[in-house]
Design brief:
The complex is a heterodimer of chains A (275) and B (219).
Chain A: H1 4-21, E1 26-31, H2 33-37, H3 40-52, E2 55-60, H4 63-71, E3 77-80, H5 83-91, E4 95-111, H6 124-134, E5 138-140, H7 146-157, H8 162-167, E6 171-173, H9 178-188, E7 191-195, H10 196-201, E8 208-212, E9 219-227, H11 237-248, H12 250-258, E10 260-261, E11 264-265, E12 268-269
Chain B: H1 4-35, H2 41-50, H3 56-67, H4 82-117, H5 123-133, H6 135-150, H7 154-160, H8 170-179, H9 183-216
Helix pairs in contact in B: 1-4, 1-6, 2-4, 3-4, 3-7, 4-5, 4-6, 4-7, 6-9, 8-9
The chains are: A alpha/beta (275), B mainly alpha (219).
């Protein structure tokens, strides 16, 4: 039977453990779906948690929704990939520091039958024009994610506006994540724009293959954004800064660069030389 | 899938907690609605039955806005925690359990009400006896509530955030695997989940059946 003194000691231990646990040792990271779905975060987070004791709870959303989550005060840190939407977020005063951590690229994938005859090129705008002319099915994310806005920017250069596209039968706005879009494109033999990370780790490609890659317009930048303490006093900013700093540190950059899926490197660390 | 058991445990834990809370709320309300007459009772019953098919994603959205740090309950810091999922599932289960308890209580009261109050006992004193009479229906009601909570995905993915190791349940895992194109893995996981929820329901139902048969000798 446990002595009274031992019980007291146990209670004291529990109380101090609880007191230290009351420090903000976990943060909510609102991130784009691609860094979660590609397996990057689940691969590098254990390294960060091991060296700092801080747990990072990842809520994976499209970039648009992630920024909104942070605006509402429901996240402590952001990891997103939509330069224009990020700039708007900073201009509104929600963010305090924005740093690029890595880049990779978007690709246009399509059915191997290639009805729009675009396969093998590197000009994304010419490919979009050819898809529109041939009225080959195209799947759009339609979810205000970074990939969705990148897609709409390309359509704009190709002379198409969202209003016109919405009326086209071949243009299919699915309102879903990257994986759902790839599932849909695979099922409908359609073209779609994908980030390379999700594509490489995606398991249901069907007849889809890469049609266009290597266009400088297809560069995909990932930024970490810390929140402005004046607007987000309730956020765990110190722990969030620790993770943001780790991501751009040599240790974090090495972890990002070392991650591979199916034997291929998915993200190029770029904190020291932003693309 | 090394954290499979963790996901199953979280899922069942959250759903059991929600079912327990919902039962505690629904039992007294469902029975009281059958036994105590008051103005507007019919309307309350209609409303509860109308909420039977409450769309989970709408419950999730409203709760999300309420629990958001900038929302009215933001200071509780519950968004993206298992507690938020328990609340969401409780809201979904209460109308179902209440409506089923009410229907059973109403039948029992119509049949035994006069008898139970004939010796001067009040309606309140008749409540435990009514609950005894409808105990088999109570099991069905609670199981229906559990089934609703454990199979739900729309509300828990919104208020839980599908955080690995914290709020990732069986249903949100299937959604995630599907979005990663791991259809066979999603399907396998789905089959396991179906098996687990069927076994739990069957076990509880069988136990209740034995209790029912044992009790029938006394009546």
């Amino acid at each position: 039977m446990m002595k009274f003194r031992n019980v007291l000691a146990l209670i004291a231990t529990l109380a101090t453990t609880h007191a230290s646990a009351a420090e903000p040792q976990s943060i909510v990271l609102a991130s784009t779906t691609s860094v979660e779905a590609s397996g990057l975060l689940s691969n590098i987070l254990p390294q960060f948690t091991a060296s700092t004791g801080i747990t990072v709870n990842v809520v994976a959303q499209g970039t648009g929704k992630a920024l909104d989550t942070a605006r509402r005060g429901d996240a402590d840190l952001l990891l997103v990939h939509d330069p224009e939407a990020e700039q708007a977020f900073m201009d509104e005063g929600h963010g305090s520091a924005r740093r690029q951590i890595a880049w990779n690229d978007f690709i246009i994938v399509g059915p191997s039958a290639d009805p729009a005859h675009v396969k093998g090129g590197s000009d994304s705008v010419a490919a979009f024009k050819a898809i529109a002319t041939s009225q080959a099915p195209f799947v759009s994310r339609g979810d205000k994610s970074g990939t969705n806005t990148a897609e709409l920017r390309l359509w704009k250069i190709a002379g198409q506006t969202p209003d016109v596209l919405a009326k086209e039968k071949w243009y299919r706005d699915i309102g879903g994540g990257m994986g759902q879009a790839l599932n849909a494109a695979s099922a409908m033999d359609a073209y779609t724009l994908s980030d390379r990370g999700t594509w490489l780790s995606f398991g249901n490609k069907g007849s889809l293959t890469v049609a266009i890659e290597g266009d400088p317009r297809l560069i995909n930048r990932y930024d970490v954004i810390e929140l402005n303490p004046r607007k987000h006093a309730g956020a765990k900013l110190a722990a969030a800064k620790a993770f943001a700093d780790w991501l751009v540190s040599s240790e974090g950059q090495q972890a990002i660069g070392a991650y591979q899926a199916n034997g291929q490197k998915l993200f190029n660390p770029s904190a020291s030389s932003p693309k | 899938m090394h954290n499979f058991l963790e996901i199953v445990a979280l899922s069942i834990g959250v759903s059991l907690a929600a079912t327990a809370v919902a039962t505690a709320i629904s039992l007294p309300i469902g029975t009281a609605l059958a036994i105590f007459p008051f103005r507007g009772r019919r309307l309350v019953v209609v409303l509860i039955n109308a909420f039977f098919g409450l769309p989970p994603v709408v419950v999730g959205l409203v709760l999300y806005l309420a629990l958001s740090r900038s929302g009215p309950l933001g200071s509780l810091a519950l968004l993206f925690t298992p507690a938020a999922m328990v609340i969401a599932q409780t809201i979904l289960a209460v109308p179902i359990i209440t409506a089923l308890v009410h229907r059973a209580s109403e039948r029992a009261w119509a049949r035994y009400g006069d008898e139970l109050t004939s010796d001067g006992a009040t309606r309140l004193q008749a409540v435990p006896q009514i609950l005894m009479i409808i105990r088999a229906d109570l099991v069905t009601a609670v199981l229906a509530g559990f089934g609703r909570t454990v199979s739900e995905v729309g509300a828990v993915i919104l208020v839980g955030g599908n955080i690995r190791g914290l709020t990732r349940t069986m249903t949100t895992t299937v959604a995630l695997q599907t979005s990663q194109g791991d259809l066979s893995l999603a399907l396998a996981l789905g089959a396991v989940l179906v098996g687990i929820s069927i076994s739990i329901s069957a076990t509880v139902f069988a136990l209740a059946g034995r209790a029912r048969n044992a009790g029938s000798d006394e009546v």
